Amino acid sequence: MREALINISYLVASVLFIFGLKGLAHPRTAVRGNLIGALGMLLAVVVTLFDRNIVSFEVILAGIVLGSAVGAVMAVKIRMTAMPQLVALFNGFGGGASVLVAGAALVEVLSLAMPEGEALSTQMKVSTAASGIIGAVTFWGSLVAFAKLQEVLIPGRPVLFRGQHVLNLLIGIISLTLGVWLVINPELSSIYWYMVAVASVLGVLLVIPIGGADMPVVICLLNSYSGLAAASTGFVLNNNGLIIAGSLVGASGIILTQIMCKAMNRSLANVLFGGVGAEITSGPRQDDIYAGRVKSTTAEEVAMLLDSARRVVIVPGYGMAVAQAQHAVRDLTNLLESKGITVEFAIHPVAGRMPGHMNVLLAEADIPYEKLKEMDEANAMMQETDVSIVLGANDVVNPLARTDPHCPIAGMPLIDVDKSRTVVVIKRSLSPGFAGIPNPLFAADNTLMYFGDGKKNIIDLIQAVKEG
Fold first, then answer.
1. Which of 114, 147, 240, 337 could form a disulfide linkage to 154, CB 3.0–4.6 angstroms apart?
2. Residue 54's pLDDT band (boundaries 50, 70, 90)?
3. pTM score
4. What's 368-419 look like in SS3?
């Protein structure tokens, strides 16, 4: 009876997780979805405590206090612009927890089974090996992703060396071999930790060749890995709630990974092994495209353009996050709307360094979700747009994706700002984007380059609009 009640409670918690995920699919229901998911997790935790198959309430209480303290500090200290790094860390913590829990469970079961002469189940052995490998890859891969996004110790650009793919394959085979050895000889628990050590090296080597602008895909993939590691640990512990929750995270991460790849018109293999952005790609030179064609502008000139505009579309990119210009953008939006101008935002799926990066930053600045238009919807209204303001975006508005079949972003869907009446690009310089290729948009007849820091330029523009 008690076991049935526990399993039913886990099932109810799993249903809450599913409804929570459904709520997170839309901004209007995201808060409610988050609360429903949290309720499901609370139920799962309470049921686990009721099961009493735990170390002790004292240790759990200490963990809650410590975790709450760390979480509170991070919530206060972390800026919204650093949210991709935080998400990467959370993915890593999930993978690391799976490694430690599965390893501890193996040691505990061996200490109980060996004196009795009992054999471990195949489920226990296989799921322990899977949890160790996937969890270690997730933990160390996520730490590398964090370091790349933060640009500490590891550069944000791809790190490539000769024989890299062969080395990764060799280390992967060694990890799997150790996993098989563990399944055959589970009484040698030290094999588990050797396997984890080798898989940790694999996690580092898999992520270092990936550039910062591909991090939306990598973060989705690592999130999926953390879910798969958790599901494997659920099989280790025979915990149905953990199995279902981990499977949901793993499946949603894979789905989002596919969406991100489709948005870039690239395969997952190309993202993981392509090394895009490591060096300037061959193709037309900047001098050939820009020479004598780039027209710079000032805040006063842009203000005059906006004064006669009826529809303005702002295209945010990673440069907006770096400049922390989202609040200044909100002020500009409010000012233009007070003059009767319609202002909307065109959001590319892979703009920024994590899925929904631009949405998160604009939401922090209290910009209504209704103004955030997805790529297809935004493109449908570009021909009726008087002024498009590109703020820190580059490759997602680069026309070479349409015209050069050999460039790294060939075929990638774009925000069609070049179809609007006038394009104002706010950028520090003419430096190429992540793909390492020039952008003909900067030299287009209807484009004006507003050079400078994104936040400062927007503030200057606000002042010019007021004075105008």
1. 147
2. low
3. 0.83
4. CHHHEEEHHHHHHCHHHCCEEEEECCCHHHCCHHHHCCCCCCCCCCCCCHHH
